[in-house]
Amino acid sequence: MSQTNSIPVILPGDRNDRRPHPGDALSARQRLVYILVLGTLTALGPFTIDLYLPAFPALEGEFSVGAAAIQLTLTGTTIGFGLGQLIVGPWSDKVGRRLPLILATSLHIAASIGAALAPDIAWLAVFRVLQGFGAAAGGVVAMAMVRDLFGGKRLVTMLSRLALVNGLAPILAPVIGSQLLIVMDWRGIFWVLAAYGAFVVVAVSVLIIETLPRHKRHQAGHSTLGARYRALFTDRTFVGVALVGAMSFTGLFAYLSSSSFLFQEVYAFTAQEYGLLFGVNSIGVVIGVQTSSRLMSRLNIGPQWILVVITIVQLAMAGTIMILDQADAGLWGTIVPLWFFITACGFGFPAVQVLALANHGAEAGTAASLLGALNFGLAGLISPIVGVLGVATATPMALVMGCAAIIAIVMVWAVVRPRTVPPLSD
What we know:
The chain is mostly helical. It has a single domain, classed as Up-down Bundle (Growth Hormone, Chain: A). The protein has 15 helices and no strands. It has helices at residues 28-50, 56-63, 67-95, 98-116, 121-149, 152-183, 186-207, 225-233, 236-266, 271-297, 303-326, 331-357, 364-382, 384-389, 395-416. Helix 4 (98-116) packs antiparallel against helix 7, helix 5 packs antiparallel against helix 6 and helix 9 packs antiparallel against helix 12. The chain is globular. Mean pLDDT is 83; it is low at 1-18.
C-alpha cells in the first residue's frame, strides 16, 4: 500500500478540512492502517525493554555477574527510554512527527546490533541505554499522531487501541522471548530487535503521512519548548494523571523486573512456562483496556473515576500477595492476586492517556513524552529496589507495588481531584 491510496483527498490537518477533528476524514480502512502501524510503533519500546527478560539467568551465567547487575541493564534501558522521550516529543512538536521517528529508530537499530555483539556486561549496559533512547520515538510519536488526528470520544477509542498494544507488549514480549530462546541464544534476541527497528523505519516511510502540518507547529502560545512545558505543568489534572500513570507503571515494572528470577529460580519455571505465565497475564490487560474504553465511550463514565477504583484494587492486590506470601501460600498465592493487579493496570492505561492528552492537542508530542518519561524513568529508578530487597520471595515485589499504589491514590485525590474534572466532549 502506498501513501497515495492510504490517505484521503484532504490530508488530515489541511487548512481546508472543516471537520472538527482531521481524523474524521479517514475511512474505516484508513483508520485500521493507522492503528496497525502506530500500534507497531508503540510496541517497539516495550519489546526492546522486555524481550530479553527470559534470558536473564543465561546472561547471569555467561557474564558471571549477580542478578542486580543484570537488572541494571534493564534499568539503563528504561532510563534511556525516558530521556529519549523528553527529547523526541518536543522535537516532534517543532519539526513534525516523521523525521524524529525515523532518525531515533535508526539509532535503535545500530544499538541493537551493538548489544548483540557486546563482549561484556558493561558494553551491554551502554548499548541498552542507547537502545532505549532510540526506541523512545515510537510510543511518543504514535500517541501524538493520534492526538493530531482525533478528539472527543473517537480519541478515547483510538487511544484505547494504542493502550491495548502498550499494555500487552510488555507482557507478551517475554512470551515471545522465551520462544526465541528455543532456537537462538540471548544475542539472537537483539538481532531480532534490530530487524524490528528496520521494519518500523520502512513502515513509517511507506504508510504514514505527516500528521502535524507546518502551520500547526507554531501556534500562538505554544511555539516554544518553554511555552509547551508551561501549558502542561500548570494543568493540575495533567500533572496528577501523569504521576498516577507513572506509579501504576512502576508497580507493573516491579513485577516485570523481578519475575524472571522469582518464577524461574524460586518457583523453578522453565523459560517456556515463564512465557506462558506472561501470556495468561496478558489476558488481564486485554480485559482491562477494552472494558475501560467501553466504560468511557459508551457509558460516559469519567476516566478519573476509573483511576479512583483501579488504584484501590492495585493496593489491595499488592497487600494480598504480601500476606499470602508470608503465610507460605505458595505459587497460587502470588499469581492469582498478581493477575488482578495487572488487570487493574490495563483498566488504567487508556484512562491516563485520555485525561492527559484531551486538552493538549497543541503540545501533544511534549505531553506524550512527559507521560512516557515519567512512566519509564520512575519505573527504572524505583523497580531495582526489588533486586536490592531480594527476589527469594514475592514480598519485596509486592511491597514496591503496594507503595506505588499508595502514592497513586494520594495523587488521584490530592492533585487530580476527580470531582473537578469536566466530562469529555464529543
